[in-house]
Design a protein that fits this description.
With 120 residues, the protein is α+β, with helices and mostly antiparallel strands. It has two helices and four strands.
Length: 120
């Protein structure tokens, strides 16, 4: 695998812009159900209750995305990693902004260190 080029400040800013434009977090994985979705695995703005609510007992406005919608087969990834994909998406909402902040913090530390070495 090739080593990727270092990320530029502009690229980091673009990622941050996309993250800031998304529905605010935190996001959660919810396991829902209804006659059409059947075992819907959703990414939601509210936590899962553990009850597997069936529509209309859940508000569709709370769902950001789905990784499994079985009837009809609208969303059903071939490797069957619905739960894993949902967890990744939900955690990305919180982790991407944290990673951006960490990259900026580390870059600032390096810049400060480089300045102090240059002054010696």
């Amino acid at each position: 695998m090739d080593t990727p080029e270092p990320m530029t400040d502009d690229e980091l800013a673009e990622i941050e812009e996309v993250a800031n434009a998304a529905t605010p977090g935190p996001w959660h994985v919810r396991l829902l159900d209804d006659d059409y979705a059947m075992n819907l695995v959703a990414i939601s703005t509210v936590p899962d209750t553990g009850l597997g609510e069936r529509w209309p007992d859940f508000d569709h406005h709370e769902n950001v995305a789905a990784t499994l919608v079985q009837q009809p087969r609208y969303v059903d990834v071939a490797d069957e990693r619905w739960d894993e994909n949902a967890q990744f998406i939900a955690e990305a909402r919180q982790n991407i902004p944290r990673l951006i902040a960490e990259i900026r913090r580390l870059r600032q530390l390096l810049a400060t260190k480089d300045q102090s070495v240059g002054e010696s």
